[in-house]
Amino acid sequence: MTRSVIITCALTGGARLNETGYKHVPITPEQIAADAIQAAEAGAAVVHIHVRDPKTGEPAMELGLYREVVERIRASKVDMLINLTTGPGARSFPRVDDPTKSQDGSVPRTPDFRTQHIVELKPDICSLDVATMNFGEAAIVNLSSHLRPMAATIRQVGVKPEIEAFDLGHVWQAADMVSRGELPANPLFQLCMGIPWGAPATVEALLQMKSMLPVGSTWSAFAIGRNQFPMVAQAALLGGHVRVGLEDNLYLRKGELSVGNAPLVRRAVAILESLDMSPATPDEARRILQLG
Question: What is the pTM (predicted TM-score) of this model?
C-alpha cells in the first residue's frame, strides 16, 4: 500500500432528524457507543461524537450523555481515537419580526459551556468550528472572542483541536490563529464540503482550501449526501484523510439506506484499497496526528 489514510466516522451529528434519519442514526448513549465500536472494527481510527436526547432524538449538550458514551467506548477496550464535538451552542436562528427571539429555541452558549465535556472527559481530539456562516436557513456564529478561549481551554487539557473549516475564509482565519500561537503549530484541519452555505463539494473548492493550509498541517475532508464517497477518493488522492458517517450521509448507495455507520466505513475502506491505500490503525493515526 502507498500510504495509510485515517478514516473518521461521524456517528450521529447535531442536526434534527427527519423520518428517514430516525431509522438508523444512533440516538441513545448505548446506541452511539455500540455504533462507534462497530465503526472502529470496520476500519475507522477516529469516531466523531455528538449526543442526542435519548427520548426524543433531539440534539443535546448534556455532560452526562457525553460521559456515558465515552465510558462505554473506553470500557469496551476496542482501540479508537475519540473525537468529541464542540460545535453545539453556536446556532443562531432569530425571528424576522423580533430578532431578540429564536425561531426554534436555539440558545447560544458560552465558550466554557461548550467545552465543559472536553475538560471533564479529555478525549483524544475535539472539533473546533472556526466558522461563522449561513447554515441552511439558520446560522452558526463562532466569534473570534469565543474561539480564542475555547482553543486555549482545549490545549490546556491536552486535547488536539480538529479545526473544522467550511469555506476559504475559515481556513484563512484558522491559519492566522496558528500564526499567533492560538492553535497548534502542527494543526489538524477537517475541510467540510458541500454544506449550505459554505464551500461547494467540488475539486476546485477543495484545492483552493487545501492551498491555504499552514505549513505543517494534517488535513482531512468530507462531503455530505451523495458526494460523501466521491470526496473520500478525492481527498485521499490529494494527500488528505477522510471522513464518512451518518452525520453526513444516510445512504450506502442510491436508494439504499446504511444500516448503521459500519457499512459506510467498510465502503470507504474499499475505496482506499482500490487506490492502493490502507485505512490507518489507531496507533498509526496517533503517529500521523502527533498525539502524545
Answer: 0.96
- Measured over the CA atoms of residue 47, residue 79, residue 67 and residue 263, the dihedral's sign is positive
With contact defined as beta carbons under 8 Å apart, do 80 and 49 qualify?
A: no
Rounded distance between C-alpha atoms, residue 159 and residue 261, angstroms: 25
Q: Residue 218 CB: number of other CB atoms within 10 A?
A: 19
Mean pLDDT across the stretch 228-243? Answer: 98
pLDDT at 292 over 80: no
